[in-house]
Amino acid sequence: MPAFTHHIFVCGNQRSPDHRRGCCDPLADQSLRAAFKAEIAKHRLGPDVRANHAGCLEQCEYGPAVIIYPHGIHYGNVTIDDVPRIIAETVIKGRILEDLLIPDDFVNNATADHVRQWAETHDRPADPRHDS
């Protein structure tokens, strides 16, 4: 079997609603992943394109988060309504969706301005990393 052209990891990490970092799957139903799978099937992209549930992707301040490999595209604040556009524009046409893109310098960076800004906005500590 050839390598996937796109392997989409959908964060399904669950936390209590009052957790300081938020939750990527607040309903605990993997509905975002299911939407990706349905859209992939609709466009008959399988088996070259796959969507999988992932544990915490460490982009909680941008949750729900999605990472598309092998391209290393990190999308944040993804909703079910975004899924058709991600499949059509990113997967099929190869376009980056700037409005969903998590900038490279924010990915896995506990000291990035966005973490501090998020913490200030939510009246929480500035370094929420490694707090499951």
TrEMBL record:
InterPro entries: Thioredoxin-like_sf. It comes from the Bacteria. This is Ferredoxin, 2Fe-2S. It comes from Stratiformator vulcanicus.
